[in-house]
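Explain this one:

_____
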Amino acid sequence: MTSVSLRLRIAVAALVLAIGATAQADARQARNVIIFLGDAGGLPTLNAGGILAHNRPQSLFIQSMPNIGLSDTSSLDRWVTDSAAGMTAIVTGNKTNNGWLSVVPTAGGNAPAPVKTIFEYAGERGLSTGVVTNMPIWDATPAACFAHVPARSDKDMIFRQMLAPRYGKGVDILVGKGRKDADQSFARQGLTAERAFTGAGYRFSDDPGALTRETRRAAILRDEDFAALPTVEAAISSLSRNRKGYMLMVEWDMHTDDPDKGLRHVVEMDDMIRRVSAIAGKDTLILFVADHSFGLRLHGGVRATPLADQYAAAARQPGATRETNAVIGVEDSHTGEEVIAAASGPGAEQVRGFFPNTRLFRIMMDALGWKADR
């Protein structure tokens, strides 16, 4: 055998070993899963938010994530979903009707049947769980993680199930708005919100600063905005103490009926994902997805001038409205096109192509090495 042939065979063997090692690394199991849910964060909203903030296309961290797919968002009974049905599909793997939270229809018109969420699977397996949202904690997206209710407006039942879960031990870290709603709901049971949550083993506060690494279970409810990144980092610090792992959902409202607010929230969530991707560890599946899209479009603008300046100038024109801005226009409604799903970490390679939103549940379960109950 010539030295050239020997070197060639060694090189081929090394390549085969490298491919095998890469495949083995890609097949590693996740210990943690973080879902970043951009509520109404469809492709047009991400596109406009990134250009408005950075004055160049594809400038968001989300748009650099290594695994990208397009998720159908239709619900069981409508082509255009609401957040209740949209999030139910993601966390249970089941399509359901608009307005329903983690329940599905049954034959013969019987009462809707509950379907277990991935947060409840996680709790049963001893993982820590967390829900952080800049919306009310009882609202559709967070509630779909732990409540089984056929009416997303039933705040009393959602709060009741928050503290008396059907499966598992309940969500460990709860952060969101809705303090007044909680007080009103528990008052109908003769309790204060503080008494109800502390009685269920939570540290209760309206200050996100009360959430620390040493916190095991906490409910932080307030009616004001809070700093996104420090709160999410504190939640991860607390949850990551569990050696078995954790499951975290972070919702940030990207509805652009108020485009200034919605597009600012795009950048806030993008900054969160960038930071968390740097600190979460290689055993963490990170998934960004929207529950549905929204009727916002980038209508114009020239590259020579920052888009933010053109958008602001158009807003000052006589008769200009959010709906008729010459640069960014809004039709105030959910829309039905596919939304982006972007992922990194163990199991992320399954996020590719076109797929129903129910597949995201299976991708997360597979990444954790779990099988759903039959």
Notes: The longest strand covers residues 128-136. The chain has one domain: 33-364.
